[in-house]
Amino acid sequence: MTNNAFPDGFLWGGALAANQVEGAYRKGGKGLTTVDLMPTGEKRKAIMKGFVPSLEPLEGEFYPSHEAIDFYHHYQSDIALFAEMGFKALRISIAWSRIFPTGEEEAPNEEGLRFYDDLFDTLKKYDIEPVVTLAHFDVPVHLVEKFGSWRSREVVGLFEHYAKTVFQRYQDKVKYWITFNEINMLLHLPFTGAGLTFQENDNVKQIQYQAAHHQLIASALAVKACHEIIPDAQIGCMLAAGMFYPHSCNPADVKLAMDRDRESFFFIDVQARGYYPSYAQRFFKENNISLVTNPGDEKILASHTVDYLGISYYSSRTISSDPEVMRQSTSGNVFGSANNPYVKKSEWGWTIDPLGFRITMNQLYDRYQKPLFVVENGLGAMDNPDENGNIEDDYRIEYLREHIQAMGEAIEDGVPILGYTSWAPIDLVSASTGEMKKRYGYIYVDRDNQGNGTNTRSKKKSFDWYKKVIATNGRDLD
Q1: Could you give the C-alpha distances from 78 to 201, 317, 428, 433, in angstroms and in order?
Q2: Strands, E, within 197-324: which ranges?
């Protein structure tokens, strides 16, 4: 990598999600949202997959999103710390139910709008560019109860109304937008990704892909509205990225890896290219999936493709056609993965594969020819303060250094990358497990898995390291 790999104006920063940091889950007029129904513990994974026992929080369960790290009341001081690191950008999400508590209101909740006004003004004070996700695992519960969430075409119009409302309100404050966070997560954690719930005899694939069609139409309509209301803005989609390696050179493994990649590419093929790919048509036919569409849907998708591709990348995955090999698989995020002996793993079993990051970025740019924006990348680890309260998180620095180097190599390869907002600049509630002990931040938050602690913020060793990275535009990674 040359010393000039990162271009002038590269957007260094960090990424957060409203549901994982804000807390104040019923403050300021906010309505109940899907993540507010996800407790910690053994029930969480089943709920994330769509088997939801109640559309109200239950007694005796701990719901980490209800308080999270109370960013709602700490955002000014937290943003000051991000500014101290030299952030050029902060990726955040707007909580849909702060703006429309049930999702059906005609008029927005002014108190919710003002909260984000104040947040964006604070960012502007420090010359930090907001990168705003419209839907980050966040559906008003009322829409789940009344319409079955994204099962229903009705939700498309309600989302479009929400999108237009925030575009109009923040048109002078936000120039980078993302429609849906990790849209492919709908296939793996349907309640998390799209608020979908299932009964025992449901045709799950039919429901998932019908919901996907509705989200893809909603995304295209949001792109249309953004381009009309904020002509100088850029709006992208987002993929939970990370290519599948075949476990061997057995053609069956290679074909299976291609098929697994296509499961995710499907969503971006539609958002970036504007039409359903031919392989999807065969998949629908062979799985008895019949999409209900409206006249004009093809034109909507074709006419309103995204400006850039946002990606999260934490790990690569490996797949085998041999059931015995797959029985030895690692958790590897929600995707699962056969064991790959050539890469290290995190404490949570996620592969650590910076070269895979470079390969993935090249693969995506070759496929779509649109700029990339790395909007999530980081290491979840258990950080233990020493007797003086210091955290020497060299393991995090090593992970980030290697991935930033890989990103620089991808830029040298010719991949245009708008910026890098690492996940996450401050400790927050883990989306997958609901834990606090799975920490990502440069800033430690004194809070444990049960919600105990002072919420006090303190800097880790990686804080000053990342500050130096930004100050040198990625040239000094030591």
Answers
A1: 47, 34, 12, 24
A2: 234-241, 244-246, 308-313, 317-319
What's the pLDDT score for residue 26? 94
SS3 180: strand
Q: Pick 11-471's CATH classification: 3.50.50.60, 2.60.120.10, 3.20.20.80, 3.40.50.300.
A: 3.20.20.80
Which residue reads 């002072």 in tokens? 454
As a whole number of angstroms, the distance between CA 68 and CA 21 comes to 5
Summarize pLDDT for 285-344 with one digit per residue, the tens. 999 999 999 999 999 999 999 999 999 999 999 999 988 888 777 655 566 778 888 999
**pTM of the entire predicted model:** 0.96
Dihedral sign, CA of 53, 58, 61, 62?
A: positive
Total Cβ atoms within 10 A of residue 226: 25
Half-sphere exposure of 455 (CA within 13 A, CB side): 16
Q: Which of 209, 146, 217 is nearest to 180 (CA)?
A: 217
Given a contact cutoff of 8 angstroms between Cβ atoms, the answer to whether 224 and 163 are in contact is: no
Question: Helices 461-471 and 394-412: crossing angle, nearest 10°?
Answer: 20
Q: Are 32 and 141 in contact (CB under 8 A)?
A: yes
Pairwise CA distance, residues 31 & 20, whole Å: 16
**The token pair that represents 279 in the structure block:** 């392989």
CA distance 195 to 189: 9
In the numeric block, which tokens belong to residue 410?
């991808």
CA distance 65 to 431: 9
Report the distance separating Cα 382 and Cα 363, nearest Å: 32
User: In whole angstroms, how large is the CA radius of gyration of the chain?
Assistant: 21
Catalytic pick among 22, 129, 182, 376: 376
Q: Looking at residue 30, what DSSP letter applies?
A: P
The residues spanned by each domain of the chain are 11-471
Whether 412 is catalytic: no
C-beta neighbour count of 10 within 10 angstroms: 18
